[in-house]
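Hello, quick one for you while I still have it in my head. My current little project is about how a certain protein chain folds up. You're getting the sequence in one-letter code plus the fold written as tokens. Would you mind checking whether the tokens look sensible for this chain? Here's the protein in full, and shout if anything looks odd to you:
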Amino acid sequence: MTYEYSLFAFQFAIAKPFASRVFGKSTSVTYECIYAHLDRCQRRILHFVMTEFGSLTVSMKYWRAWTSGCSPLLFVALLSACSAPELRLVDGAEVATESGLVSGVSADDRVVRWLDIPYAQAPVGDLRWRAPRKLEENRAQRVITHDAQVLCPQMPSSTSGIGGDGPIGQEDCLYLDIVAPADFRQKRYPVMVWVHGGGNTTGHKGTYDFTELAAREQLVVVTFNYRLGPFGWMTHPSIQAGAQGLDQSSNFGTLDIIAALEWTQRNIRDFGGDTSNVTLFGESAGGHNVYALLASPLGEGLFHRAIAQSGYTTDVSPRQAINHQREFPQIDRGSWELTQALGLNVETVDAAVLRGIDMQSLLGAYYGLDKDHLAPLTTADGIVIPSEGIAAALANPSNSKKVPVLSGSNRDEVTLWLGLNRYFVEGSNVSFGLLPPKVSIKNPELYRYWIDIRSRGWKARGVDAPLRALEGAGYAHLYAYRFDWDEQADNWLLPFSQLLGAAHGAEIAFVMGKPMYGPIGDYMYPDTPSAKTVTSRMMKAWGNFARTGEPGAVGGKPWPPYSSRAPHIMILDSADQHGVTVDSQTLDGLLQELSGRSPLSSLERCLLAWELVVNIGRPQYDAYRRWNNGECAEVDAPSEQKAIQATLIEAFGTTTIL
């Protein structure tokens, strides 16, 4: 189950309750009208990208039928109710940058925003799969804000918030946004540069609004796009062989992040930013990219603190990234396979031909390839990422940046993927099938055990291992957290707190101080005293860390540093449940725990062991084969997973409950 489809399904289930929140419980609105309204009003989240009504999407026939039955006056009210505050030009907020003259806008008197500032030349034509090029300086030329969201090429998803049937975005996508306190001309504020998530294949800067964080904590926050998927990470003999300098790299998306940081160093003073106090922070793939920059020799001097939220250290070698003749059967979508899918001669194709393929064709071929295993993205090319790989490079003193680092994960990371999977949940029809099914967990003990082990696996490989590595490299100021808050507003159809809890990405809203993902945000980030308290504490901690390199006390409780001898973890939770614990996880320890008593069948034990060893870091296939005296050595976990999926599809038409 993909991250994007999980969000879509959850959003569908709360469509009707959302209407009552907007219009009042007495409003008489048909479910069909609400659904149609949400597609318009929340077009950044809900989109109709399939054709079968039975899979909870809407064909154009249903779309026309539904919208034609809705009152035009109602639609005026609906659209007015959810329209975003209008941005207005701010007097005295025009800033001359090396990219051009940018105008400040705002819908909030506390801050000023600058949008769609190019930070590098468009990576199009001959610049595809090359290091980003610095713009020719022209401070007098006015920068024009785009009418629509700018995003790099990707497939439609809830992460991008834009629908469609095929590839979306444009290769001319290297733009950034800035938000700063209104008195930016008179001050020097700490700078925070956000790296968006989305698996390094989806996402964009426009998904995130750090207005509240900037206003409350007096920070300058930068968000930006970077190249994704096969445009951001590509290793092919014809591309690297004839290249020079950084163009020989495989990590063009990582180089974009470096270019955004370099632009920030050169220009952010004019937006009230302190160039000597820059914090790089990101979530999921963004957290992964924070680790990549900590490991990269090219990150030196570009940032002074780092925050990795639910990060990971997965990477591949250049040889794996090519995967010639599928030399590595557990690698999918390598460049050799992609070249074949494009109908090109894999032995003789040259870089010019590859650069001449249009975006839609290239991305369509890429996603047309099956993906049952790891797909190459971040690559240990020996140029941007050391040849030893991210995990080992973090432990190497020669790569040390010696900056304060804050890292953490969420208690229920994987519920976002598993919370609607029919293997774990079931549904009962209500209202003669006019509403989505009422969802319940089949075996709560099994579900909680699976979520607990997998989420602790994320912490082991995505938090504890990187922090221990950094400690070994000489980093002295390390901090760790676990986000536990799970007091969501349950829906009658979906018990959010049980199905999702402290899910992957849930903490972002508490750092931003604003719901994400449209109507689902009202449930994941409700307007309650508990949510407000946790928001205030997390914003303050992130702000303190940006200012001083220490998160400070949380709710009056000191936040001690993390070390291998004293692995202190701050539990971020409601007022009476937050506090510090000592906890350090390892992959070996979790595999040992899994070998004991559990509610799992023998096959489930192997499947869970497989998931532990192949995620959040380089796959440890030997550890799987050796586990528990070879218990699973003859169990082909990917084939068993596909068989389970096939059984669910045969029975229900889909693997998900919605």
